[in-house]
Specification:
Length: 582
């Protein structure tokens, strides 16, 4: 009796203890796959297979299929980026034959040389290094050769850190390791999107040098003086680790630096280092300084992220497809630290990005969009279609769609954390629009689009490897059994390759408390920048690149949207670099 009572009391104590520890989960507990989802997942899985087989037929071993001409392109070293990038998706979808063939192919790639004159550290890291390591983990960690290959790639990538420089140069002379190129600037996305992959490479090779270098550059940025706490500008001096400009954005060129702050903490379970709190600062400062609601529109409830540059007049009311990953990232971090306000912002940002899809004549959102910011601020940006703007709260700016994933990426986080099927409905509408507009009938491939502001967009001869790595994966996972890439066990790199986290079930992450205004409420009066550009051509652009039809080398100089539109180049960017290009 006594014993029973004590045992009972102990059990009660144990249960309540474990319920404290386990109250923090990322995914909504008990989420299951509906019959409807099963059917939808199956359709996406089949379309992936057909589309990937078109790549195999016409472009096998090359980086990307040119879907209209049945040709190929080699912007990423020519090692077969689409093969390596597709491995984790093929595995997760249960296309075991495609995965096995891809692994065999990947084991035989000669990563010691390339016919490309320069290689992007960033792109090679997120596509190849992550693709190889993630395939190794998913396949049960049996194929040691995948790690050997990853090591060859990693040993080339670390030549980007010249001398004792804190930050690497992004452009690598792959074939000539002994004489690396120097550079006068590095972007924070390039220098700060390495730590997940390098950590895993160090873990599986037992050699700490990869992680040490990636940590050095990430820390240099995180410890530099931001424009606002946690909000670092885009361009850095690689020798000093100090900023060279004042342009703040969650879009291309900066994006995945912010993304990796919280994801690296999640990968390792480390909430003692600076990562979590630097990310908390980034989000809190973004809420204070970047979040705005569009003015002079019926859709003024939408929640947007602006860019910011004091030397260019302050807030720039423009957001991008690339920058739309932020909603999902804020949701993930919010769940980790149990911050409901951040979570609400993440959901709201995701909703605003989804609105660019649901409002668009093609059903697909654009590369970038603009709006009228707080206090009727346009900062040199023009709203062309006033009627559309009044109804939908944004106007198209760059109207291409190059099969990017970020809006569906955020919808994936919104769905997995809430279980609200409205997100699945949004994703299904997006998928049917993508399939209807992008499908190339004669070969089953999907092609980029020239203009999503149209009910029958013209296709472009472009289809990058992130279609297989990311876009198909996120769409599939929104409908798949939620135990696939369970967010309580995996973290996805910026190319959507899943890595196993070190401390599943860790529970709540320690983070400092911050006060932010509730979502939907306007910020106080904005501080103005020092200069108001009067002409559109002076408006600085975040870095979009990889857009087809530019006739500029991928990953090379000047491949920015600003150049395409004939706008002035950003200060301090002599040799232009790209951040997240997808
Ligand atoms: C913004 O413009 C609208 C419409 O022209 C006007 O009613 C409103 O007063 C303006 N707001 C500010 C802060 O200037
Ligand atoms: C979008 O399409 C409409 C209808 O064709 C057109 O009036 C408008 O100018 C377009 N917007 C942009 C930014 O291209």
């Amino acid at each position: 009796m006594m014993l029973g009572k004590t045992l009972g009391a102990t059990l009660v104590a144990l249960i309540s203890l474990s319920s404290i520890v386990s109250t923090v989960t990322i995914q909504k507990p008990g989420l299951t796959q509906s019959q409807l989802s099963k059917t939808r997942a199956k359709q996406i899985k089949a379309a992936y297979r057909t589309s990937y087989q078109a790549y195999l037929k016409y472009a096998t071993g090359h980086d990307a299929l040119l879907p209209l001409s049945d040709g190929f392109a080699d912007p990423f070293g020519g090692w077969g980026a689409s093969v390596v990038d597709s491995l984790s998706t093929s595995f997760l979808m249960g296309h075991r034959d495609l995965y096995d063939q891809g692994v065999e192919y990947s084991k035989r790639i000669d990563f010691t040389k390339t016919s490309s004159s320069s290689i992007s550290l960033f792109e090679t890291n997120i596509r190849y290094l992550a693709g190889l390591i993630s395939a190794y983990e998913l396949g049960g960690k049996k194929e040691q050769k995948l790690i050997d290959q990853a090591k060859v790639v990693g040993d080339h990538l670390i030549t980007g850190w010249l001398g004792t420089n804190p930050l690497p140069c992004n452009t690598l002379k792959w074939n000539n390791l002994a004489t690396p190129d120097s550079c006068d600037s590095s972007g924070i996305a390039e220098a700060g999107t390495l730590i997940l992959e390098m950590d895993r490479l160090s873990k599986y090779t037992g050699d700490q040098k990869y992680l040490q270098l990636a940590t050095k550059s990430m820390k240099a940025i995180a410890q530099s003086k931001g424009v606002f706490p946690g909000l670092f500008p885009q361009v850095y001096d690689p020798t000093t680790g100090q900023p060279k400009d004042d342009y703040v954005t969650w879009g291309g060129g900066s994006d995945s630096f912010f993304e990796y702050l919280i994801k690296y903490a999640y990968l390792t379970g480390d909430d003692k280092s600076i990562w979590v709190n630097t990310w908390v600062d980034s989000v809190a400062s973004s809420i204070q300084h970047l979040v705005e609601h569009p003015e002079q529109t019926q859709a003024s409830q939408l929640t947007y992220l602006t860019d910011y540059s004091a030397s260019n007049g302050g807030n720039l009311p423009r957001w991008s497809h690339l920058g739309c990953f932020a909603g999902g990232n804020w949701i993930l971090g919010a769940k980790m630290i149990g911050n409901d306000a951040f979570d609400a912002y993440g959901q709201a940002l995701t909703g605003a990005c989804a609105n660019t899809y649901t409002s668009s004549p093609s059903g697909i959102g654009p590369e970038s969009f603009v709006f009228i910011g707080q206090g009727n601020n346009t900062n040199g940006i023009t709203i062309n279609d006033a009627a559309f703007y009044r109804q939908h709260g944004f106007d198209f700016e760059v109207t291409q769609y190059i099969l990017r994933p970020e809006v569906m990426e955020s919808v994936f986080y919104a769905y997995r954390t809430t279980g609200d099927t409205k997100w699945q409905d949004i994703a299904w509408a997006a998928w049917t629009s993508i399939y209807r507009n992008c499908l190339v009938k004669q070969n089953g491939a999907l092609a980029a689009l020239a203009d999503v502001n149209s009910t029958s967009p013209t296709k472009l001869d472009d289809s990058e490897s992130f279609l297989y790595a990311e876009t198909f994966k996120y769409l599939y996972l929104i409908f798949a059994d939620p135990s696939k890439v369970d967010l309580d066990r995996y973290v996805l790199n910026t190319e959507a390759h899943p890595f196993e986290i070190d401390q599943p079930g860790k529970g709540g992450y320690a983070a400092k408390k911050v006060d932010v205004r509730p979502v939907g409420e306007k910020a106080g009066k904005k501080e103005n920048g020092v200069k108001k550009p009067s002409e559109t051509k002076d408006v600085p652009m975040p870095m979009f690149s990889g857009l087809p039809g530019l006739n500029l080398p991928l990953g090379g100089g000047g491949n920015t949207l600003g150049n395409v539109l004939g706008w002035t180049k950003r200060d301090g960017l002599k040799k232009h670099r790209r951040g997240k290009t997808h």
